[in-house]
Amino acid sequence: MRRIGKQTLFILLLCLTGIFAGCYKEQGKQEGYLPSKATSKTIEAKEETKKLKIGFSMDTLKEDRWQRDRDLFKEAVEELGAEVESVAANGDDALQILQAETLISKGVDLLVVVPHNAEAMATIVNKAHSSGIKVLSYDRLIKNAEVDLYISFDNEMVGTLQAEAITKLVPKGKYVYIGGADTDNNAHLIKRGVFQVLQPFIDRGDITVVYDQWSKNWNPEYAYSNMEEALKANDNKIDAVIAANDATAGSAIKALKKYGLEGKIPVAGQDGDLPAAQRIIQGTQTMTVYKPIKALAEEVAQIAVRMANGEMIPVENKVNNGKIEVPTILLSPVAVTKENMEETIIKDDFHSKEEVYNK
């Protein structure tokens, strides 16, 4: 047998290597393998994947409370590695719809909405869903729409806490109720909580609600007019006032002052606004209901990012919004008086002690 020389053997090995390499390359094309250079580009592309963007459509930034919500929510979302684009309509329904449509057109991954008009914003939910974007209703419930999730404080409990505090001080007498915006579902929930407490007193004849009116758009000017009307209609003989929030409570107190009644009639509000906290210390407002908005903003931020990532959020509670039973998460509010101001609002650094006490 003829032996194969070393040189010939070397040439054969080179040929076989080329053949196998060609086969591997062809197999790679068929099975979807990419050359090392392309694989490197793919890895780089994954590393450069754009951040999730949350659209935040807000009713207003005119009140201190909502500026805090915006800032806390943005901070919490960014800590989770996502981005926020926020817009505020300052009570203009048409503008809020336009702003929300703009966020949708920009392709946000989730839309969070604080509606000014609970029913008007239903159209935005439909448009968002048409673009494959889910909608989370923040603090205020959007009505008559298939909202994906609603997160807020227990607003019926807000009203309950207000009425419980005032009826302890005034178990008998003439009551004035200054409501919020008739278009805001929260205003209705707060009122429901108030009147659930008042009803047994009313049934016994101990309490008479001599004035009950909404304040259009939560506008303090309407609250002032309402309080003046109530005083004039009752010859200034009023025993207690429950207002839907601290801004309306402030206007009611302003009207009471005009008639020399400031600090003489118990007044309840809610939101924990700084002017309200100061009035409580001064003795012109009886109480407020504090809603730890940092807890709310952080809860919404965490869930918003999870929803934007396509996660399903299991919840136990549901609230009917006129169209569906909306999956709902409710946080608990806290009644605040002069006695527990330091262990609630000040302890949470919602307002500083120096601010509250005007030091």
Automatic annotation (TrEMBL):
It is found in: Cell envelope. Keywords: Signal. It comes from the Bacteria. InterPro entries: Bact_Solute-Bind_Prot2 (IPR050555), Peripla_BP_I (IPR028082), SBP_2_dom (IPR025997), XylF (IPR013456). Its main location: other. Pfam families: Peripla_BP_4. Residues 54-311 form the Periplasmic binding protein domain. This is D-xylose ABC transporter substrate-binding protein. It comes from Niallia hominis.
